[in-house]
Design goal:
Blueprint: H1 5-22, H2 36-51, H3 57-70, E1 74-75, E2 85-86, H4 97-113
Parallel strand pairs: 1-2
Helix pairs in contact: 1-2, 1-4, 2-3, 3-4
Length: about 110
């Protein structure tokens, strides 16, 4: 079965954006205003899960973190695309539950398309 990976990634992103707003994080742009690097990251996450649909949220985070590090990103208290810093570049177990929830929602959204 073929899936519209970009549509799934867009939906994952929008769910994440709305969730972030609910916890006071207004840093996420709507999909049509999202930078290409961020869209590509969401698409990569969808593809990874479609290839291995038993990935846990921790494993999804680990894959995301590997990719970010390979792109030159490092831990920083504030997400900054220019400086390539991100506060979630820590082991899954060290992230606050509200951040872990984003990975869980990402997987659940993909599952809803399957």
């Amino acid at each position: 079965m073929e899936y519209d990976v970009e549509q799934i990634a867009k939906t994952c992103h929008e769910v994440n954006r709305v969730y972030c707003k609910s916890v006071g994080d207004f840093s996420q742009a709507e999909w049509h205003n999202t930078p290409d690097w961020q869209k590509e990251s969401a698409i990569m996450g969808v593809n990874a899960f479609l290839k291995n649909p038993i990935l846990s949220s921790k494993e999804m985070h680990d894959l995301w973190m590997e990719h970010k590090i390979s792109e030159g990103w490092v831990y920083g208290e504030v997400k900054d695309a220019v400086k390539k810093t991100h506060p979630c570049l820590v082991p899954y177990s060290e992230m606050p539950k509200e951040q872990q929830m984003k990975d869980e929602f990402f997987i659940e959204v993909i599952k809803s398309f399957l």
